[in-house]
Design brief:
Elements: H1 2-19, H2 27-47, H3 52-55, H4 70-82, H5 93-112, H6 124-128
Helix pairs in contact: 2-5, 4-5
Pfam families: CYTL1 (PF15153)
Protein name: Cytokine-like protein 1
InterPro entries: CYTL1
Length: about 130
């Protein structure tokens, strides 16, 4: 009977062990995926009928984590999103999530991942003329 209990325990834990990611996400991979998600989220908010009337005038958000100008771009966009407080759509869950996630990415890049990130490009114009998704 004890053999069956051990066999059952091993068989029930095997899928959990095999499904666990072998490599935890690095700081770089986390920043890269957050930047991609934020770029897509901002584009979706500009197209969404509920938020397009107040997000339509916002500049397109393109976050290239390899560009040194991205930090300035994020600071500017955070202040623009926080400036939407007097408008009705600024209080929607999606717009607040965009602002909070953007601030979180800024903190990750400036404090937590500071030594892990390398800026290979310094071209602010690229971030401005990106057409979006």
């Amino acid at each position: 009977m004890a053999i069956f209990k051990h066999l059952f325990l091993v068989l029930s834990l095997a899928p959990l062990v095999l499904s666990y990611p072998f490599f935890p996400p690095t700081c770089y991979s986390k920043v890269l995926s957050m930047a991609r998600d934020l770029t897509q989220m901002a584009a979706d908010l500009k197209r969404d009928p509920e938020t397009s009337y107040c997000m339509g005038h916002m500049p397109d958000l393109y976050l290239d984590v390899h560009n040194a100008c991205v930090m300035h771009k994020m600071r500017t966009y955070i202040s623009l999103v926080e400036g939407l407080r007097h408008r009705r759509c600024a209080y929607t869950r999606e717009v607040r999530k965009l602002g909070l996630t953007l601030r979180q990415l800024f903190i990750f890049m400036s404090e937590k991942c500071h030594g892990d990130l390398v800026f290979t490009v310094y071209d602010c114009a690229v971030l401005e003329r990106y057409p979006g998704y």
